Amino acid sequence: MVGIKDVARHAGVSVGTVSNVINRPDSVAADTRQRVQAVIAELGYVRSEHARQLRAGHSRIMGLLVLDMGNPFFVDIARGAERTARRAGLGVMVCNSNQSAREEAEYLALFAEQRVRGVLLTPADDSGQTVQSLRRNAIPFVLVDRVGAGGGGCSVSVDDVVGGTLAVRHLLDAGHRNIAYVSGPSHLHQIRDRRAGALAVLAESGLGSEALTELPTETLDVAAGRDAGARLLGLPHRPTAVFCANDLLALGMLQALFAAGLNVPRDIAIVGYDDIEFASAAAVPLTSVRQPAAAMGRLAAEMLLEETDGAGEHQHRQVVLQPELVVRRSTLVGRP
Ligand code: RIB
Predict the structure, then answer these.
(1) Ligand 1 atom 3: the closest Cα is on which residue?
(2) Ligand 1 centre and the CA of 73: distance in Å?
């Protein structure tokens, strides 16, 4: 393994000069810089990132722990975070907790071993164990898609209660009074908030919770949406509209209703959540509550860089963005 001392000896300069050529090239005279760079290329010297981390005290890697790598919502978050990290000269190490608190803990330990600059993550549950583990390991973090426990760290999220009200108010305005809510695991804060928003707007409209039939699911993917569709079709008083806690559930619901020979939206209207790319590309374009996922990823990465750039005092903040209803054919009867 070629070391920095080998380069210095071959170039006839000090180790400090080689270090300056690598880290502060403008501080070295052009002829010396070019001679050292030629020796680096000739010997194939590669800077030891681990050694640099030990000296600099922090890594050029940002950890990103997503809840479900199969959900395009998190791909959009990762895309926003990665572009921001890259502009700051960092890379992003993406790991998938797969909605498992155990797997989440294993990846947080890996990030700590790797001494990453910090971690962006959507916690796998609401227990608070995650944040305690990050604090215990003194790992800077930004919670994504979850409102942070104030004072303990930054967070970027969307107001999911508003999101639930937007979805169900749209269905009420279209005349629906018997609505199903295909929810996800109740230990996810965002799923509970969407339900709370749905119930709030029913109450505002003088409708009780009986106007909302909940079809819980264990996961938030297309297969769970298909399964919920089968259960919905078996209900004695079949709802005329469905609010799904995310777009993957809505796409599975769409598949199940098609397979049963039903027309969307004429027989049953569907609203999803996230507005992933496949929502607009679906056979019946999905009405969805849009989350600005890429912007969430960018903002979370910016907050982590600000906290860890060593430039001075950092004030934790909890940013809550607003969702937006994107209306498409899956809820509009009688319009192209
Ligand atoms: O991770 C499950 C869901 O919660 C995602 O689809 C997204 O809506 C997030 O908020």
Answers:
(1) 246
(2) 7
State the CATH number of the domain containing residue 43. 1.10.260.40
CA nearest 286: which of 265, 307, 304? 265
Q: pTM value?
A: 0.82
CA 40 to ligand 1 centroid distance, Å: 47
198 and 310 both lie in a single domain: no
Sequential DSSP letters for 37-99: HHHHHHHT----HHHHHHHHSS-SEEEEEES-TT-HHHHHHHHHHHHHHHHTT-EEEEEE-TT
pLDDT at 53: 60
Structural domain count of the chain: 3
Question: Per-residue pLDDT tens for 99-119?
Answer: 899 999 999 989 988 889 999
Pocket test for ligand 1, best of 125, 145, 160, 244 (most atoms within 8 A of CB): 145
The CA R_g of the chain, rounded to the nearest whole Å, is: 25
- For ligand 1, the distance from its centroid to the CA atom of residue 112, given in whole angstroms, is 26
The C-alpha atoms of residue 244 and residue 147 are separated, in whole angstroms, by 21
- Asked, for residue 304, whether it belongs to a domain, the answer is yes
> Whole domain around residue 35: which residue ranges?
4-47
